[in-house]
Amino acid sequence: MNLILLGAPGAGKGTQAECICNVYGIPAISTGNIIREAVKNGTELGEKAKAFLDAGALVTDELVIALVKDRLAQPDCQNGFILDGFPRTVVQAEALDQMNVKIDTALDIEVADEAIVSRLSGRRVCSSCGASYHLEYNPSKTEGKCDSCGADLVQRKDDHPATVLERLRVYHEQTEPVKEYYSKQGKLTVVDGQGGVKDTSELVLKALEAVK
Ligand code: AMP
Question: Looking at the whole model, is its pTM more than 0.85?
Answer without folding.
Answer: yes
